[in-house]
């Protein structure tokens, strides 16, 4: 880590309202087609899965096993993207209490700039009706809540 970054991250962890941004490495797009740019992505805690990534409203974010992390590729498009809404940004990722080394973006096939965590494209599940809900966990054995490093939260176990 760079000198000065550790104290800054510790301060951010201590201050729950601390938000930081990281510059997108993807080419910005003029118009985002699906999803809603989040106010932030942040660390959340689920009693069954442990640490998870949530959006600024507290909704759980997911990864899709049919996508790839290295290189980052999103294959959930069309009808899939209406149910599993890509987490999009227009320029920078605003984040709170997450390691920026795991955050980046990719340009989707539809032209949007999608947040990635540990290389995995991030999605919000349309059937999660309240913040913290994880109804998409292990759905179709391919959708999993995102852990802060991009792995499957809770090791991919089912919650229901």
Total count of domains: 1
Strand order in the sheet with the most strands: 1-8-2-3
In whole angstroms, how far apart are the ends?
A: 39 Å
Rounded to an integer, what's the Rg over CA atoms? 15 Å
Strand percentage: 25-35%
Give an overview of the whole structure.
The relative contact order is 0.24. The strands form four sheets. The protein has a four-stranded mixed β-sheet, with no helix packed on it. It has a four-stranded antiparallel β-sheet with strand order 7-12-4-13. It has helices at residues 5-14, 80-83, and strands spanning 20-23, 41-46, 50-55, 61-64, 68-69, 72-73, 84-86, 92-96, 103-107, 113-117, 120-121, 123-125, 143-145. The radius of gyration is 15 Å and the shape is globular. With 160 residues, it is mainly beta. Mean pLDDT is 81; it is low at 1-36. The protein has one domain. It has two helices and 13 strands, in the order αββββββαβββββββ. A hairpin with a 3-residue loop joins strand 2 and strand 3.
Q: What key phrases describe this protein's structure?
A:
mainly beta; four-stranded mixed beta sheet; single chain
How would you summarize the topology of this molecule?
Blueprint: H1 5-14, E1 20-23, E2 41-46, E3 50-55, E4 61-64, E5 68-69, E6 72-73, H2 80-83, E7 84-86, E8 92-96, E9 103-107, E10 113-117, E11 120-121, E12 123-125, E13 143-145
Parallel strand pairs: 2-8
Antiparallel strand pairs: 1-8, 2-3, 4-12, 4-13, 5-6, 7-12, 9-10, 10-11
